[in-house]
Design a protein that fits this description.
Order of helices and strands: EHEEHEHEHHEEHEEEHEEHEHHEHH
CATH architecture of one domain: 3-Layer(aba) Sandwich
Shape: globular
CATH class of one domain: Alpha Beta
Helix content: 40-55%
Number of helices: 12
Distance between the termini: 39 Å
Strand content: 15-25%
Number of strands: 14
CATH topology of one domain: Rossmann fold
Structural class: alpha/beta
Radius of gyration: 19 Å
Length: 325
């Protein structure tokens, strides 16, 4: 089978293409000339040089594909316009090209985000059938992209995957928590905030299960690790995996917002996206970033193969082995 993948150079994409190759597929990746091939250099992949933002070589990229996994997108940007240009409009552009040159495609899988759904207003995990209520520019761009993907469902066999926070080897976002824990410091905002997580290898297996299952056509799935976690427990798992006893610093949302104002001002000076901004503080300060994975269990028969505690340990070991800690 020929599989086309966007976003293959990224954290999640690099794990996905490894799994696809392991299954004996021919894998074609859309990359830019400036792409960092760090995780792909030793893999038997084919590359098409192109750009989702202007449509360069998209017809060549999709023309022979049996399945297409669309993972490319921005998680950090300077503003809403940039998020929508890449996450929303590029998705629409790709689908239009597929409709034109590969209308018999077997499956189009779009990697969205739990941010498209938004946090839960209470302790009941969000389900796929709940109305979306994104609270960030990133989440809104993904929610609009989902609408576009579903608008093609009468023409193409589409499936949408919504992961929560993703962790694992090669990740640089959750890695920050490992790095500070190794240095002896952990941070908490408020108390007993709950979240869903997914280990990257669990996400890949769940995504592949959805791509192979006919009942997943036209559907959305949350793919998560089993269980709901508190930040306190997550910090405990990370500390245990690293064999350290860090001190815990408690920050208020108001203090972090003040810090974010200064960070945003600095970002404007250097003209680069800043991780710590007021929108990000609003995001991480939510009490219930939790979602329900029961639909994936019932429809796909998917059970996450990697328990969270062991996955956290595997992640910590990888960071150490590769000199990140």
């Amino acid at each position: 089978m020929t599989i086309a993948v966007t976003g293959a150079t990224g954290f999640i994409g690099s794990h996905l293409v490894e799994a696809l190759l392991h299954r004996g597929n021919r894998v074609v990746c859309l990359i830019r000339k400036t792409s960092n091939l760090r995780w792909l250099r030793n893999l038997n992949l084919e590359f098409v040089y192109g750009d989702l933002r202007n449509g360069e070589n998209l017809e060549q990229f999709v023309s022979e594909a049996d399945q297409i996994f669309h993972l490319a997108g921005l998680t950090k940007a300077r503003g809403e316009t940039e998020y929508f240009a890449v996450n929303t409009l590029s998705t629409q552009r790709l689908l239009k090209v597929i409709e034109k040159v590969n209308p018999n495609l077997q499956r189009f899988v779009f990697l969205s985000s739990a941010a498209a759904a938004g946090p839960s207003p209470n302790s009941i995990p969000v389900r796929e059938s709940d109305p979306v209520a994104p609270i960030t520019s990133y989440g809104r761009s993904k929610a609009e992209a989902e609408k576009i993907v579903l608008s093609f469902s009468s023409k193409l066999p589409v499936t949408i995957i919504r992961p929560p926070a993703v962790y694992g080897p090669r990740d640089r976002d959750v890695y920050v928590y490992f790095k500070w824990t190794q240095r002896g410091v952990q941070v908490l905002i408020g108390k007993n905030r709950q979240l869903s997580l997914v280990f990257v290898k669990n996400l890949v297996q769940g995504t592949l299960a959805a791509a192979e299952h006919s009942a997943a056509i036209g559907e959305i799935f949350f793919i998560t690790d089993d269980g709901i976690f508190t930040w306190e427990y997550l910090n405990e798992l990370i500390a245990r995996a690293l064999g350290v006893r860090p001190i815990c610093l408690h920050f208020s949302e108001s203090l972090l917002n003040v810090m974010a104002v200064f960070a945003e001002a600095y970002g404007k000076i250097i003209r680069k996206p800043i991780l710590l901004n007021r929108e990000k503080i609003r995001d991480i300060s939510q009490r219930y970033w939790i979602c329900d994975n029961s639909k994936a269990r019932q429809v796909l028969g998917f059970i996450p193969p990697h328990p969270t505690a062991k996955a956290i340990q595997e992640t910590a070991d990888w960071y150490r082995k590769h000199g990140w800690l």
